[in-house]
Design a protein that fits this description.
Blueprint: H1 3-15, H2 26-36, E1 42-46, H3 47-52, H4 58-61, E2 68-71, E3 79-82, E4 91-94, E5 97-98, E6 119-126, E7 139-145, E8 151-161, E9 165-175, E10 179-191, H5 215-218, E11 221-234, E12 240-254, E13 262-278, E14 284-301, E15 317-336, E16 339-358, E17 367-388, E18 392-406, E19 419-436, E20 439-450, H6 454-458, E21 460-461, E22 466-468, E23 476-488, E24 492-513, E25 516-537, E26 541-554, E27 559-560, E28 568-576, E29 580-589, E30 607-618, E31 621-628, E32 660-668
Bound molecules: copper (II) ion.
The site of copper (II) ion has 7 residues, from strand 14.
């Protein structure tokens, strides 16, 4: 289908919406949340939507949101892409905590490091409209963890599906007016999934490839993850609260057919403390202090691949990586004049170190792949929201950042102690217009920035070709314009948005010479549009449709930007009487033929998949079952393969999962 056909279809669905009898309904509540509270530039994903899906991690669960795609490297650890912006071009946080992965190949993206069972809701801001965090150049995805309700509470959940995919969790909590506590535990396991052609994801390499899996590893466990967490809250007065939380996650033996190595482990610690006082005076509405720390240790090697079989050690290549991030933020909301001023100061420090050892490099000599490098950032932001009558609201804000990058070890790229400074300004102006209750129009002009990370600056991997960072990289600056409109009643909503982003000094991976692959600043642009709608029909029927499109251009190179997802549409029909539901979902993706030929990027064919699910809910008990990819279609996401010059083999793409059946049960009290 073309863009026009799909938009027509979505529009038709909206026009056929009729009013139906009102009934207390979880789904209706969600429509109302989307209608009343969210600006057209915002999206959210509720815990219900996550629970009902067979998604294995938050990245995969977020795929159902318009404008979100993922990079699929294996059975888990999907990396989130928002409107074509990936990696450090977006912020992926949890409770505002900055959390980075340790792997230089992004085996462990930020969203991989928290479990669903910790999360209540995920908030998404599309575009450079978050000034409260440094680096929200393309947008913000912030997961919010659960807070216990009054008295004793708990939730038990067990999911099981094809390939022994297991997802079990338990939480228990207790709360009074003055204090509360919560404990949780989650376990995830799966064998290697099969794609639509009946082959395992580990069977994508031909029998001549050194990257193919050893016979014993082909059909082994794809991952095993244990996560435990706790949270303590104390309310010293009725208007103040302090909270401390800690999570430990241990991921074991995670396979990544997309890459040349697999993870032996990822061990993650995450800690967050906050203190908040509200309604202090007529002037000071809200004051919050937050301090956090997290650390990830990651070890990957090729022990399960043929490349290691003739090595003197059990591996021919290995990377031992760790990262640590800590930070603090003080923010206040003040009632000044007719409007509200939100202002704050924040700091973070991220250290990243990776040591690579290879048989072919001086017989396993230690190589400072990422040389114990630290990035420190201090920022100041202010945002003022001014109501202009009952129909208009104007928001303007500015943020300034000073960033210091320094290497702690020496490699071919950099000497220990060498450093670099960046300073950047972000700003935006947003106008929300509500001519009548049902319609909100949003328009925004934004400037967002992000500084290059340690890998882009200092990476050193000798070889032919070598893979190296570029110390002369500048910070990327995004100038973006957004237009959005939402029409919503308590029976349906439709949300449409369009954006254009001009990217100065976009960090692009490229083949610098026949012997060197590196990063360069280019001039690029991305534009796109999304359409989302949900309609309540008579007879407890609900229709939902969505469309997402993104187009990227490498203006400097006069060619398409690489790794941009194609047009995607979803349409679902659901029967839901509040107790029982059944849903049919069609997902359609167009062919992607806008490719960067200099990276030998390949076209990806279009596809259609069908998912079915049904569930029953009674009081605190719920059961959901489903069949994903009902027709066992063999298909590929355009993002799920490695491009030149880092390709793990021409045309070796990681297919999406074939038909799989799942069942999950939950009990909440
Ligand atoms: Cu890794």
């Amino acid at each position: 289908m073309t863009v026009q056909q799909l938009s027509l279809l979505a529009l038709l669905l909206t026009l056929t919406a009729q009013t139906a009898r009102a009934e207390e309904h979880l789904l209706l509540d969600e429509i109302i949340v989307r209608a009343d509270r969210e600006s057209p530039k915002e999206e959210s994903l509720s815990v219900r939507e996550v629970r009902e899906s067979p998604a294995r991690d938050m990245g995969e669960a977020l795929k159902q949101v318009e404008g979100i795609n993922t990079v699929h490297k294996g059975a888990i650890a999907n990396d989130v892409v928002l409107r074509g912006f990936q990696k450090d071009n977006i912020n992926v946080l949890v409770d505002g905590v900055r959390l980075h992965g340790a792997c230089p190949s992004r085996m462990d993206p930020p969203a991989f490091h928290y479990d669903f069972a910790e999360i209540e809701q995920v908030k998404i801001i599309k575009g450079p409209y978050d000034l409260t965090n440094p680096g929200s150049l393309g947008g913000l995805i912030d997961a919010q963890t659960k807070r216990p309700g009054k008295g004793f509470g708990g939730e038990l959940s067990l999911g099981y599906g094809d390939w022994h995919s297991t997802n079990a969790s338990a939480t228990a909590s207790y709360a009074t007016d003055s204090y509360d506590g919560l404990l949780g535990y989650a376990y995830k396991y799966s064998d290697v999934p099969k794609s639509g052609n009946g082959k395992l994801l580990t069977e994508i390499y031909p029998s001549t490839s050194p990257n193919r899996y050893k016979t014993a590893a082909v059909d082994s466990k794809a991952y095993e993850i244990n996560t435990g967490w706790g949270k303590l809250g104390f309310n010293p007065t009725s208007n103040s609260r302090t909270e401390v939380s800690y999570t430990y996650q241990d991921a074991d033996h995670v396979l990544y057919p997309y890459l040349k190595m697999d993870a032996d482990y990822d061990k993650t610690h995450r800690m967050n403390w906050s203190y908040r006082v509200q309604n202090i005076s007529a002037l000071l509405q809200d004051l919050k202090l937050q301090v956090y720390w997290d650390r990830v240790k990651h070890l990957m090697d090729d022990r399960d691949r043929f490349s290691s079989s003739t090595s003197p050690r059990f591996y021919s290549m290995q990377t031992d990586a760790s990262t640590q991030t800590y930070g603090a933020k003080l923010q206040a909301a003040l009632q000044i004049g007719p409007g509200t001023l939100k202002s704050g100061l924040d700091y973070y420090n991220r250290n990243w170190d990776a040591t690579n050892r290879r048989a072919m490099y001086f017989s396993y000599r230690d190589l400072a792949m990422i040389p114990d490098a630290t990035i420190e950032n201090v920022g100041l932001f202010s945002e003022y929201t001014l109501p202009l009558g009952s129909q208009l609201s104007l928001t303007g804000g500015v943020r300034g950042d000073l960033t210091h990058a320094e290497a702690g070890r020496t490699n071919t790229m950099v000497t220990a102690g060498s450093s670099k400074e960046f300073s950047s300004i972000s700003a935006n102006l947003q106008l929300n217009y509500t001519p009548f209750k049902e319609l909100t129009v949003f328009t925004g002009l934004g400037r967002g920035t992000r500084t290059p990370d340690q890998q882009e600056l200092y990476l050193d991997v000798p070889g032919t070709p070598a893979w190296r960072g570029n110390q002369n990289l500048k910070a990327t600056v995004n100038h973006q314009v957004d237009l959005g409109a939402k029409y919503a009643t308590n029976r349906f909503y439709i949300n449409a948005s369009i954006f254009y982003s001009d990217l100065q000094d976009y960090v692009n991976f490229y083949q610098a010479s026949p012997t060197l692959k590196s990063y360069q600043n280019i001039h690029a642009s991305i534009w796109g549009a999304e359409l989302g709608s949900q309609i309540s029909l008579p007879a407890d029927l609900f229709l939902r449709g969505g469309l997402s499109y993104t187009e990227g251009r490498n203006i400097s190179g006069n060619r398409p930007l690489s790794e941009i997802p194609p047009l995607r549409g979803t349409i679902s029909i659901r029967y839901d009487n509040g107790r029982f539901f059944a849903e049919l979902l069609e997902t359609l993706s167009r062919e992607q033929d806008r490719i960067d030929s200099s990276l030998n990027e390949q076209k990806t064919a279009g596809w259609v998949t069908t998912d079915l699910k049904a569930g029953y809910q009674y009081k605190g008990f719920s059961v959901t079952g489903g069949i994903n990819n009902l027709l066992d279609t063999q298909y590929y996401s355009h993002l799920s393969y490695l491009r030149d010059p880092f390709v793990s083999g021409v045309g070796y793409r990681v297919p999406e999962n074939g038909r799989n059946v799942y069942l999950s049960m939950a009990y909440k009290f």
